[in-house]
Amino acid sequence: MTREETLRLRVPLERVLRSGHPWVFRRALRNAPRSAGRVVAVKGRDGRFIGRGISDEGAIAVRMFTTRDEPVDRDLLAGRLAEAFALRQRILPPDTNTYRLVHGEGDRLPGFVVDLYGDYAVLRFDSPALHSWLPTWLEALMPLFERLGVRGAVARVPKDKDFGVQQVWGEPPPEAVTVVECGMKLVASLWHGQKTGLFLDHRESRRRIRELSEGCRVLNLYGYTGGFSVAAGLGGARKVVTVDSARPALELATRSWSSNSLDRERHRVVASDVSRYMQALRDDERFDIVISDPPSFAPSQRTVPRAIRAYRKLHQSCMQHVDEGGLYLAASCSSHISPDLFETSLRDAARATGRSATILETWGAAPDHPVLPVFREGQYLKVCLLRIGR
Fold first, then answer.
1. I need a surface site. Which of 53, 66, 143, 312 has the fewest CB within 10 A?
2. Distance CA 96, CA 181 (A)
3. Which residue ranges of the chain lie beneath pLDDT 50?
């Protein structure tokens, strides 16, 4: 029997780890793990046991799974999965068959995500080391898959700074699947889409746009597969423009619009870089609602100053094209951008444009993306809804 590897802290993180923080960084350890993908024990500077996790090979040396003296095995994973499923049964809205079943750290299964798209599941591993646990994960997931009627699963694994997709169980999903969110039909590609196919974390944002769009002209920037656009259309928008640089995503946006029996004359898709599109707009062209949900501008802490400048420039451009009294929904998906920094970029943009801006609401990811109180890094999504005046 292989002896369990023990790692010792060299910095005072005992309290935060015992409180449930799921990451141990390599620089915080006296001795780094010998290999990745193994169960390791973590002890404090005084040699007292803190918990167990799975070793990794990047900056995060250990992903902590428990602070109890218990094994990290299929039974532990199955128990956590059952808890995650019970939570979703309580919080999911009706007429919804696509959602996040497992949200990694928030469900105390760090580095591991499961998203459901109707009859299919997408597993995502944050590192190859975690992917080595695939057989154990699948064994633990089988009871849930059977209960939910899942017919097949694919996995997304880090590959060359992106994610590769592979069939791992059951039937392969079709090139495009149609799912339902709060009664709204959305078309997604589980093979080629961003994230796991859709931005499921924006469910509350789409619901809010649907409630606010009656009779509005709506501009959806970085529109991807058109979730916000469809929500606006179902909410009664009289004109919706979806802008994205990816033509395949816009094709799915068009299919989603049609799947909801919406008048195609009310929807226009534009394949363009957002900055180029905004520069080409006439100065007097205005919308009642502008939505801006760009990809992360700050992939690391080092890039935060540059990202803030980019957000400020984007907000300024968007605010200039919101009609008086109209709404601007601005989002950031970067965990390195704090809510205060993001709101500061909005304030500075309003000042630069000479427009008044009032924050009406703020929110984050949908509740099937839970966050541990000790894990601030999990609060990555920030959404602000503003009223833009003169």
1. 143
2. 4
3. 1
**Alpha-carbon span 247 to 269, nearest angstrom:** 9
User: What phi-psi label fits residue 224: left (phi over 0), alpha (psi between -120 and 50 degrees) or beta?
Assistant: left
Helix axes 227-234, 247-259, angle to 10 degrees: 30
- For residues 169 and 163, give the distance between their C-alpha atoms in angstroms, rounded to a whole number: 18
Distance of CA 248 to the CA centre of its chain: 20
The 10 Å Cβ neighbour count of residue 329 is 24
Distance (Å, whole) CA 346 – CA 339: 11
Q: Map out the domains of the chain as residue ranges.
A: 5-66, 74-179, 199-388
Catalytic (active-site) positions: 333
Phi, psi of 303 (to 5 degrees): -90, 5
DSSP 368: T
CA nearest to 81, candidates 145, 155, 168: 145
Q: Please state, in angstroms and rounded to a whole number, the distance separating the CA atoms of residues 185 and 300.
A: 35
Superfamily of domain 5-66 in CATH is PUA domain (2.30.130.10)
Helix axes 227-234, 203-212, angle to 10 degrees: 30
List Cβ neighbours of 138 (8 Å cut-off, separation of 6 or more): 153, 168, 169
Distance in angstroms (rounded) separating the CA atoms of residues 35 and 281: 54
Tokens at 123, concatenated = 């597993």
**Rounded Cα–Cα distance for residues 32 and 327 (Å):** 50
First to last CA, the chain: 72
Alpha helix positions (H), 108-238: 128-131, 134-148, 203-212, 227-234
Q: In a 3-state reduction of DSSP, which class is residue 225?
A: coil
Summarize pLDDT for 37-90 with one digit per residue, the tens: 999 999 999 999 999 999 999 999 999 999 999 999 999 999 999 999 999 999
- In this structure, are residues 40 and 5 in contact, taking their beta carbons and an 8 Å threshold? yes
CATH superfamily of the 199-388 domain: Vaccinia Virus protein VP39 (3.40.50.150)
